[in-house]
Amino acid sequence: MVQGSRQVQTQAQQQVQTLSPQQILAVKLLELPTLELEERIHAELLDNPALEEGKETSDASDALNDEYNTTDQDGEPNTDSGEDIELGDYRTEDDIPDYKLQENNRSKEDRAEDIPFSDNVSFYETLKEQLDMQHLTPEQKQLGEYLIGSLDDDGLLRKSTETILDELAIYQGVYTSAEELEHVLSVIQDFDPAGIGARSLQECLLIQIRRKEDSPLKQIELDIIGKCCEEFTRKNKDKIIQKLNITEEQYNAAAAELTKLNPRPGSSMGEAIGKNLQQIIPDFLVETEDDGTINLSLNNRNVPELRLSREFTELLDEHTRNKQNQSKESKDALMFLKQKVDAAQGFINAVKQRQQTLLSTMQAIIDLQRPFFEEGDESLLRPMILKDVAERTKLDISTISRVSNSKYVQTNYGIYPLKFFFSDGYTTENGEELSVREIKRILKECVASENKEKPYTDDELADMLKEKGYPIARRTVAKYRQQLNIPVARLRR
């Protein structure tokens, strides 16, 4: 019996969120720290002739920055600037950039030249140089750059493949497969130092072992980490010997080699190029006056002023007025001019939006953590999560996350990453909210003061914290202890 085939057409309604090119540009600029923003602007100036650097005016003031210039003790902005903006080389006030002119935001004693700057090669740049030497497609290089930027200070990749795929699609407009991402990651895992790009401590150690010359001892090391990694970290020597059927001498020889491996390859790159040791350039300047007034400004000392090219806008106006009876060449010229001017205006708008978002986010952090900015005492930091800042700024949580992940602030008490001001809260049975940061600090002090011959168990630590006014459960103590990388009691002897 001959079977026929038929086609069935169905309709399905699907809601897909897509970002416009302007939104993607704004997100990319938002991620950049100050130094990379400068590089990005200079690259745009070279690429787009419709965008030009304006002449600096020393007596100009930034209207937007003035909104966040000073805050009184009640947290209300003080906008009494008293100085007018001069047009100078600008055609209208709309052309004046409102992300650079902020001289009035600094005190007389605090000059922009005093902000530390670094010529060191960064952790990211060092790995990117190795990436540029690989035979990859432009799309693969883009994936590689994003993966490198996603590594933590230890050089490990803590994000899941699914998370990175989502981030690439939402924030970069890049759609790829898990297989392609895994392939590019495998390329990065061949970079120096060995272990870079690993997704776990076990994978990090295995990568380093595999680079060794083949030998019977190498195979034992691979077996210990590949099959008994948890037992090895817990120092269960007898269990490993029994499980792998090896002698004590073989185990001791392999263990001696394993202890030479580096579980934090990113931090081994040295002070000159280590990501977490390089000199930091703050993105924000926060100055607390004696009367409690807090001044906030952006550190834009090397960010050039931007405006539309007068020559391009005049040519565009001329071609627009003479639309009638234009030749094909004139129409092509008009299209070129319009595209460049639109791109330049879009870039200027994206930089302005970046400044508004940064200032709004930092101002919210100051308002929520005002006692710290007034006194500089870490114990005054209250529990604060991304949602708290998002609700105060009316911005999306993902936006707050992108700002806080890569930005630093210079205060009267030192330079801090924005992540420093975020910590979870622990709510007691009585409804009292305690700072997890404070609990962890007390926990570290308890462990530091213990008798190393008889270290405290988690139950004992829980009792001690309860006596100090922090009534938390033993399992919570164990969780915080693990987050602080403090071993169990028997391993602290």
UniProtKB/TrEMBL annotation:
Looking at the record, the residues that make up the RNA polymerase sigma factor 54 DNA-binding domain are 336-493
Q: Where is the composition biased (Basic and acidic residues)?
A: 88-114
Keyword annotations of the record? DNA-binding, DNA-directed RNA polymerase, Nucleotidyltransferase, Sigma factor, Transcription, Transcription regulation, Transferase
Q: Which GO terms describe its biological process?
A: DNA-templated transcription initiation
Residue ranges of the RNA polymerase sigma factor 54 core-binding domain? 119-311
Q: PROSITE patterns under this entry?
A: SIGMA54_2 (PS00718), SIGMA54_3 (PS50044)
Any one Gene Ontology cellular component term annotated for this protein = DNA-directed RNA polymerase complex
GO molecular function annotation: DNA binding; DNA-binding transcription activator activity; nucleotidyltransferase activity; sigma factor activity
Q: Which InterPro entries match?
A: RNA_pol_sigma_54 (IPR000394), RNA_pol_sigma_54_core-bd (IPR007046), RNA_pol_sigma_54_DNA-bd (IPR007634), RpoN_core-bd_sf (IPR038709)
Region Disordered: what ranges? 48-114
Q: Where is the composition biased (Acidic residues)?
A: 73-87
Which PANTHER family does the UniProt record give?
A: RNA POLYMERASE SIGMA-54 FACTOR
Q: Which family does it belong to?
A: Belongs to the sigma-54 factor family.
**Protein name as catalogued:** RNA polymerase sigma-54 factor
What is the species of this protein?
Phocaeicola plebeius (strain DSM 17135 / JCM 12973 / CCUG 54634 / M2)
